[in-house]
Specification:
Blueprint (H helix, E strand, L loop, with lengths): L1 H9 L16 H10 L2 E4 L4 H10 L3 H5 L4 E4 L2 H8 L6 E4 L6 H8 L8 E4 L4 E5 L2 E5 L2 E5 L2 E6 L3
Parallel strand pairs: 1-2, 3-4
Antiparallel strand pairs: 4-7, 5-6, 7-8
Helix pairs in contact: 3-5
């Protein structure tokens, strides 16, 4: 978690306290930490495992009702959409996928929803009713790919 804190510190955001919440923490401690947090980071890793954790500890509603900032990195960004925290469905590490996977697995899904492909270090930020894009981001919609932001 120290490296994550340093990311924020690099842009002049410092936290008084940082906590890691995982299977080693009791359910009551998890609830207390989340309800008192000003910022929650849903980290990367195994997307399904993270969602299983959220369901096992029944914290989906706590996340949905959180009044502070929620940051999703990689798997965390995917699960933010699954939880209904944001409307943007994302495909992190978009530049690392093979065309065959994108064509056969991802593009058919774009007829039912818009998916944003984010290159590493790209960001979609939601604030009130505004959406901000930074970095190389592609909109995948109705079987068509269109670049909507670039890291110039």
């Amino acid at each position: 978690m120290l490296s994550i804190s340093s990311w924020f510190k690099a842009i002049n955001i410092e936290f008084k306290r940082v906590s890691v919440i995982d299977e080693r923490v009791s359910t009551q401690e998890i609830m207390n930490e989340l309800m008192n947090a000003s910022c929650i980071c849903l980290m990367g890793g195994d997307t399904k495992r993270q969602m299983d954790f959220i369901n096992q500890y029944e914290i989906a509603d706590v996340l949905r009702n959180h009044q502070g900032v929620i940051v999703g990195l990689s798997a965390g960004a995917i699960n933010m959409a699954r939880l209904g925290l944001v409307e943007s469905h994302v495909l992190p590490h978009y530049n690392n996928y093979k065309n065959e996977y994108l064509e056969n697995e991802i593009m058919p899904l774009t007829h039912n929803k818009v998916i944003y492909g984010l290159h590493d270090e790209a960001v979609i930020a939601h604030s009130d009713n505004n959406i901000f894009y930074y970095g190389d981001i592609f909109e995948l919609k109705d079987g068509v790919v269109r670049q909507i932001s670039s890291r110039k």
